[in-house]
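@channel sequence for tomorrow's demo:
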Amino acid sequence: MGAIGQDGALDFEQVKGQPMAKRGFEIAAAGGHNLLLIGTPGSGKSMLAKRLPTILPPISFEEALETTKIHSVMGLSYPSGLIAHRPFRSPHHGITERALIGGGVYPMPGELSLAHNGVLFLDELPEFHRRALESLRQPLEEGMITIARAKATVRYPADFMLVASMNPSAKGYGALGTELQQPLPQDMQRYLKKISGPLLDRMDLQIEMQPVTVDDLNRKGIEDSSRDIRKRVLKARALQTHRFRALEQVYCNAQIPEGRLEDYCPLSPKVTGLMARAMSGLGLSVRGYDRIIKVARTIADLTACEAIETDHVAEAIQFRSLDRIMR
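structure tokens (generated this afternoon):
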């Protein structure tokens, strides 16, 4: 990846416009949340996704050692001996289920495990094979993938942040396929049927990309650099490290286990009322409800706010685009 902001390395300051998407990436990095980008071709989905590792906490020695072991099984090696940066894996949508999750007569790791402690980017999400996508559900919940074969059953680590992107419809654009317009709801619903509801529920932040204008491209203002964003992310992560010090294998808000949400994310009656209205109005599942609370906890952490307030929840709800579109 190179030094951040040097010699043309990837950096968020290179991205023009898309303030809401950038905010979503900052929240995702701060809390370890999964993220789905919805936008027309050329709106910057891949450009943003590739820059996510530049705002994540640097990989620790323990993480580097564990990740390097997985990569070495596949014959991958690095000049320094250990992998130096968080992995960023971006398999093509034509990948087989075996290549994605791992397998073989003597099971070997796949892309899910190669992305361990890093980022898995799935571009054009609805174009992936349905069975391959469904294989994501176990690692997204457990951080592990189980591969059962006749000669052996193995479990490989697969704890990654999932970033996915998709076009508004199969044609990429709106109903006419020629103008950058909002697709008809039924077009999006038809396209989204390729992705299961449980998988969509696991996308904590769902962001509608906006077309980049000429004014955005010509604006002379200075964009936040990856270094600036990472500083805020690290401060939020430090709060979470302290918060979860008594829990094993929990390091960020996205990992709060079932049954412990009320312990770590208590809500005031006012916030509870807002969530009740959101659940009714958007038809949220229980999983979707929990995800909003976790994202709201991260938004509060970014401002070093001890309590989750209504504005934190309101912003988290704004990042559930599909819930609003599909209601």
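heads up for whoever presents: The longest strand covers residues 161-166.
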